[in-house]
């Protein structure tokens, strides 16, 4: 996913502003994935969407489509405030119209308006899944290269600092907490699908059947 910390795209993502033929007014995402760079949001979103027979959507990809440039270029040419503005709008639009799996950029949850929208979504029975990961397991996935604007300087220290600031927000908004340390993405997707329950179908959301955090396999 093209988190400002880890630009990229999500396979199967729908273009911003478009919906499937099956989309009906009042639907909401089947599940929203939040978490830091390296937690596997993009891969899990694709696998989970396949599992639920819905479409995966990535708000960072939406931002890039709207701006006509990569997130790294938005940061360099327009600044972080402009990126956050585009991100806030992308999240609000996707929460209102997308009926599949929605993956958010790592820092999207820091916006107060986005927090309110996610809290309301969760309170209405939506599933906000926090994909947790440690620095040790995130590092090989993220790569910590210079294309990640918020990880310049000392990437590992920057990642840990960002995670320390964001963790309380992730945990407060999440209705489902899944550790991805040492867990294959397909297994993470299956855990989330199991928490949604057997009645989960495209365009609908059920209250998670599992309330306690899913622990890493022994």
From TrEMBL:
Name the GO terms of the biological process aspect. Answer: amino acid biosynthetic process; aromatic amino acid family biosynthetic process; chorismate biosynthetic process
Q: Where is the composition biased (Polar residues)?
A: 8-21
- What enzyme category does the UniProt record give? transferase
| InterPro entries noted in UniProt | P-loop_NTPase, Shikimate/glucono_kinase, Shikimate_kinase/TSH1, Shikimate_kinase_CS
| Cofactors, names only | Mg(2+)
Residues that bind substrate: 60, 84, 106, 166
Q: Which reaction does it catalyse?
A: shikimate + ATP = 3-phosphoshikimate + ADP + H(+)
Protein origin, superkingdom: Bacteria
Its name, as the record gives it, is Shikimate kinase
Question: Gene for this protein?
Answer: aroK
């Amino acid at each position: 996913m093209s988190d400002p910390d880890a630009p990229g795209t999500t396979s199967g993502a729908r273009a911003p502003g478009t919906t499937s033929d099956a989309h009906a007014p009042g639907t909401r995402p089947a599940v929203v994935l939040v978490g830091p760079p390296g937690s596997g949001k993009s891969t899990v979103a694709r696998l989970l969407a396949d599992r639920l027979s819905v479409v995966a959507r990535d708000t960072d990809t939406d931002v890039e489509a709207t701006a006509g440039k990569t997130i790294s270029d938005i940061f360099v040419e327009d600044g972080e405030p402009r990126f956050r503005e585009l991100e806030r709008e992308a999240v609000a639009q996707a929460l209102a119209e997308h009926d599949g799996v929605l993956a958010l950029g790592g820092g999207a949850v820091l916006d107060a308006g986005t927090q309110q929208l996610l809290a309301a979504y969760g309170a209405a029975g939506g599933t906000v899944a926090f994909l947790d990961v440690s620095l040790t397991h995130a590092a090989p996935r993220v790569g910590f290269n210079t294309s990640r604007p918020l990880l310049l300087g000392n990437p590992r220290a920057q990642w840990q600092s960002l995670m320390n600031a964001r963790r309380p927000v992730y945990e407060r908004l999440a209705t489902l907490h899944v550790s991805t340390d040492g867990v294959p993405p397909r297994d993470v997707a299956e855990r989330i699908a199991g928490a949604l329950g057997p009645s989960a179908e495209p365009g609908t959301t059920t209250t998670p059947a599992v309330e306690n955090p899913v622990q890493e396999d022994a």
